[in-house]
UniProtKB/TrEMBL annotation:
MF term (GO), any: sphingosine-1-phosphate phosphatase activity
EC number(s) recorded for this UniProt protein: 3.6.1.68
Keyword Transmembrane in annotation: yes
Residue ranges annotated for the Phosphatidic acid phosphatase type 2/haloperoxidase domain, each copy included: 170-281
Coiled-coil residue windows: none
Biological source species: Ameiurus melas
UniProt-listed CDD domains: PAP2_containing_2_like
Keywords annotated in UniProt: Endoplasmic reticulum, Hydrolase, Lipid metabolism, Membrane, Nucleus, Transmembrane, Transmembrane helix
Protein's name according to its UniProt entry: Polyisoprenoid diphosphate/phosphate phosphohydrolase PLPP6
Amino acid sequence: MPSPKPVRAGSARSSGVSGVGGGSGSSGRYEFMSLTRTPPLSPSPPPHLLQRQGSDPTTARLRASESPSRRRRGSASSNASTSSTGGALQLPEEDCMHLNPSIISVALSSLLAVDLWLSKRLGVCAYEEASWGSARPLMKLVEVSGHGIPWLIGAAYCLYKSDSAAGQEVMLNLLMALVLDLVLVGIVKAVVRRRRPAHNRMDMFATFSVDRYSFPSGHATRAAMCARFLLAHLVLAAPLRVLVMLWAVIVGLSRVLLGRHNVTDVAFGLLMGYCQYNLVEALWLSPAMLQNMVGLE
Ligand SMILES: CC(C)=CCC/C(C)=C/CC/C(C)=C/COP(=O)(O)O
């Protein structure tokens, strides 16, 4: 499997392929090439760099993406070390000190490469002509079931219809949780700015501008948080509890099948939604606070 190649955001964007990474480029952001695309031509590294890169192609590419000043410094120390050892490759101390960050970035790059590859393979409902394209309408129904608008309208309606203080308390807190989820997901999306998979067709209804970004999946955070909320506050029979959990998993899975998200967007989204519920519990609006806020007797 080819290793992903960290490139400057501008060049990847122009090829319409996306990814994310912490990176140490001038913009602090890397994007990763699609595995199925031919990487753009880049100037060949100078011969001394090739010598230092050895036979490991990943290390070679990482070295080639270094800043020119670091390459020059590396080149000088490399020449010294190879000449003193009669041609045997001996890394200078400076490079040894950078070994750990390199291992982490290679591990992260590999994880993201697997993520892109797996997500592309699993995007079987991304369009009608795809291998499971006939299931796309069903997946879009699942999408609607996890969308913010039906949940907000449903919670507001139940709050309005509820005739007990306990019911109103739960519904108001659910509303608060849904708004909190939209805000937190919006912030993370705006900070990370990972683009949606190239095979995604952007035909979702009612989206915010941050929803052009894919990390994390808002549907996944909402599904995990709402599932925990329902399980904690509704008295449900065992089969229904299983159904609620299954629904959350299916909503998450449908995001990848529809091609809306990469696997890591959904995995992180489910985890984030699960943790968000803890925050909702911590911020729980009590009846006393509710009396002040909505004037309950
Ligand atoms: C009242 C109000 C402002 C409601 C906004 C609800 C809304 C438009 C939510 C966006 C839901 C959405 C499309 C999230 C994107 O989910 P991903 O799973 O694709 O990240």
